[in-house]
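We treat protein structure as text, and this decision shapes the records that our systems exchange. The tokens are whole numbers drawn from a learned vocabulary of local backbone shapes. Below, we set out a record of this kind in full and without editing:
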Amino acid sequence: MRRIGLIVAAALAVLGGCGSDPGGGGRPGGGEGARAFIDCFKVPGYRALKPPAGQESLFALEAKRQGYPNTPVNINEGSASFASVFLIFFEDEDKAKNALDQLGRETAGDFPPQQRGPAVIGYPYADDKRKTERAVNGCL
């Protein structure tokens, strides 16, 4: 009986690190976090990618201009060249919060940007949010 308890405890410890932290604490930021997100994200009809220069979100561009290094990720639907969802990975949770506080929490889209750990997420359209939010949250 004790052996079963140890196996269950070990399994729970392993599973505890698999997307169960709603605040994103301990998740990697910056380029490492962006790469991990791109590798993780799977939604039929959508793809996550590092955008070419100039196709980052305005938030990512302005954050860099204001001294907040970041790594942007766009989620595009199908072969579209414009993003359906924007993610901006900062070095850590505090830098993401500071950038969001300084640059504002307003958006030109349907939803204000939100923070999950070291990432800031922008959902311009309700339909894309509905289709991708579960996978986005699972990969952060």
In short: Confidence is low (pLDDT under 50) at residues 1-24. Residues 110 and 126 are 6 Å apart (CA to CA). The first strand starts at residue 46 and ends at 49. The chain has one domain: 2-139.
